[in-house]
UniProtKB/TrEMBL annotation, chains A, B:
Coiled coil: none annotated. SUPFAM superfamilies: Molybdenum cofactor biosynthesis proteins. This is Competence/damage-inducible protein A. Residues 1-162 form the MoaB/Mog domain. The lineage of its organism: Bacteria, Pseudomonadati, Pseudomonadota, Alphaproteobacteria, Hyphomicrobiales. InterPro entries: CinA (IPR050101), FLAD1_M (IPR056596), MoaB/Mog-like_dom_sf (IPR036425), MoaB/Mog_dom (IPR001453). Pfam families: FLAD1_M, MoCF_biosynth. Signal peptide: none annotated.
């Protein structure tokens, strides 16, 4: 994924699209492999997009497709693909119809939202009409979270979904430092399962959330059982030590 | 910045460090130019870090320096710099003292948190002792937000701060599509100021938050005046049209 916008790098806007896409992809069995955030720099956007689209099966971008001068994503995508950018007839029709229905002037600024690289297909926008678009393996979506989410629902129909990743969360009442050794052994014995360890603390007590993830239900259950057993034995050891 | 962790790419954890660093850097007058998020893949972490540290003045990483098997950042940073990774004597001393004081066992897993690439200097951790570290222009911090923030405060003392970016926010009660044209002209006339346009809507009404940013107070004021004038004139035009 490529998130675009100066406002993300200045801290003015806190991104909410990366986490959403990550969740949607995980449920669909698609691995999100990398995210980059860049500002409103045409060359950096184009170069980054070229790297990502050549490295991964698909790329989703967010941001920079509105009506104002700082919305430069369509041009940057065109530059990346060496394609001319012009008004997409169907996008123009939808926008013109929408503004006519609402009795609003179809300004030159609003016409900008119809611009796509030549040959792009549209990604429907049920929230605010102005569409996203697809060029080859790149999906170009809006940055406003409600619009991004609605567009992403449409993108998902075009992506080959995989076997969803199953996950099992195991609460461990002991801190990471007391289970790190045995947990590493369990990870070694269950190579088909990715085991994540997330330290937390509350009221001065340290505990750990363990999450096992796999596409294989049987492997996941075996790892879960091993982790639960380890957590139980750690508790018994602590009790025996009087901890 | 480089944020590290499978949990960020699966959506299980929503990153809170990127936005924080962006805000802290902006206040300090440091430009955040790019962020990447990668998973717990040693080669990808090392390759990405090598690209970023050669491209930018400084790199800050988050995540992957705890006591468990999935905490691989120290090794990946060592690989990136082709430096051996071993227990840092001062880090080991701090950790041993801390666990002794708390009457806790200094397990092998906990000793892992003392590992740094050779020659690293430590980044103090006032929250939970286990330090981050610096190698050359790379600062390696924890992923837990409270710890990341405390470590970042210490990193800021080592960074050359620039002239802070000043910003002016102008509320525009009209939608982006009605001001996009004149706003672009203003941007052209004020090249030393970056003007961002952020569409919002509430109760079905569309409006726009405009933000002008510059390191030059005079240039910023001139742009602000031009934008406010444009917003006012747009309102008068609307009133004249009976909109």
């Amino acid at each position: 994924m490529l998130a675009i916008g100066d406002e993300l790098l200045s801290g003015r806007t806190k991104d909410r699209n990366i986490g959403h896409l990550a969740e949607v992809f995980t449920v669909a069995g698609i691995d999100l492999k990398e995210v980059r955030i860049v500002g409103d720099e045409p060359t950096q956007i184009a170069d980054t997009l070229n790297t990502l689209r050549r490295t991964y099966d698909f790329v989703v971008t967010s941001g920079g497709i509105g009506p104002t001068h700082d919305d430069i994503t369509a041009d940057a995508v065109g530059a990346a693909f060496a394609l001319p950018v012009s008004e997409h007839p169907e996008a123009l029709r939808r926008l013109a119809e929408n503004y006519a229905n609402r009795g609003l002037e179809f300004t030159e600024a609003r016409r900008r939202m119809a611009r796509t690289p030549e040959g792009a297909s549209l990604v429907d926008n049920p929230v605010s009409v102005a569409p996203g678009f697809r060029v080859d393996n790149v999906f170009v979506l809006a940055g406003v979270p409600s619009v991004f989410q609605a567009m992403l629902d449409n993108v998902m129909k075009e992506l080959p979904t995989g076997v969803p990743i199953l996950s099992a969360a195991i609460h461990c009442p002991w801190p990471e430092g007391e289970i790190g050794g045995p947990l590493r052994d369990i990870q070694k014995q269950h190579p088909g399962v990715a085991i994540g360890s997330y330290p937390r603390s509350e009221d001065g007590r340290h505990f750990t959330e363990l999450v096992a993830r796999s596409r294989d239900a049987g492997a996941l259950e075996a790892a879960r059982a091993a982790i639960e057993d380890m957590v139980r034995r750690t508790g018994e050891d602590r009790a025996a030590r009087g901890a």
